[in-house]
């Protein structure tokens, strides 16, 4: 764990247009919408299954029982509109070297291409730097042009590491020194 990261403390980050803060149970429907909108190339465990799961109730329960984490995946709220449009934050995916988390973000399609992912990610990078992290990772499918573009814009570079999947594409491992 980085020196400034406190697992019990709630993180709230603010940018000019956005607030990044923990999810509220009432916002499970937004999470479900993100699930339904996922690209068909995304692996099945991240898509709604044949029984319709996760349901909104499943997602509500997950938010309710979420353990406090120092940052995790924060809901992105637009300050002017007051709506939640997706998430951005850090996950301990176990794929990067120990204690170097992964940046992740996902937004509702109707707000794409307005710079929100870039703005939210830069706030998370600032938080990570101030919290003592020295390096972060991000993984991205080779076909995911918008996400690759966001990562490049905020300073991530591609490493030699990649994992090819015959069905879903190749996962690229990118990194940033903070
Ligand atoms: C990736 C994602 C979060 C980007 O959100 P966003 O708010 O639209 O991102 P931004 O507006 O900050 O930047 C997007 C950049 O990609 C570019 N872009 C978007 N779609 C593109 C496309 N089809 N082809 C080429 N460039 C594209 C935009 O022009 C912009 O770059 P620019 O500023 O140089 O013009 C959003 O597309 C998403 O939620 N995707 C699904 C989930 C996902 O892939 N998450 C990441 C997993 S690694």
From TrEMBL:
<dbReference type="Pfam" id="PF13302">
    <property type="entry name" value="Acetyltransf_3"/>
</dbReference>
<protein>
    <submittedName>
        <fullName>GNAT family N-acetyltransferase</fullName>
    </submittedName>
</protein>
<feature type="domain" description="N-acetyltransferase">
    <location>
        <begin position="32"/>
        <end position="177"/>
    </location>
</feature>
<dbReference type="InterPro" id="IPR000182">
    <property type="entry name" value="GNAT_dom"/>
</dbReference>
<dbReference type="InterPro" id="IPR051531">
    <property type="entry name" value="N-acetyltransferase"/>
</dbReference>
<dbReference type="InterPro" id="IPR016181">
    <property type="entry name" value="Acyl_CoA_acyltransferase"/>
</dbReference>
């Amino acid at each position: 764990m980085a020196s400034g990261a406190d697992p019990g403390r709630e993180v709230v980050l603010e940018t000019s247009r956005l607030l990044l803060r923990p999810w509220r149970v009432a916002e499970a429907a937004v999470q479900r919408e993100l699930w339904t909108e996922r690209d068909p190339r995304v692996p099945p465990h991240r898509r709604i299954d044949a029984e319709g799961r996760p349901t909104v109730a499943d997602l509500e329960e997950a938010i309710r029982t979420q353990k406090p984490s120092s940052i995790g995946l924060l809901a992105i709220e637009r300050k002017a509109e007051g709506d939640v449009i997706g998430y951005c934050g850090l996950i301990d995916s176990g794929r990067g070297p120990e204690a170097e988390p992964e940046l992740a973000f996902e937004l509702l399609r109707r707000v794409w291409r307005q710079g929100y992912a870039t703005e939210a990610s830069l706030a998370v990078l600032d938080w990570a730097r101030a919290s003592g992290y020295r390096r972060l990772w991000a993984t991205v499918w080779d076909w995911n042009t918008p996400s690759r573009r966001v990562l490049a814009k905020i300073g991530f570079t591609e490493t030699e590491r990649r994992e090819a999947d015959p069905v879903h594409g190749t996962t690229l491992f990118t990194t940033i020194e903070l």
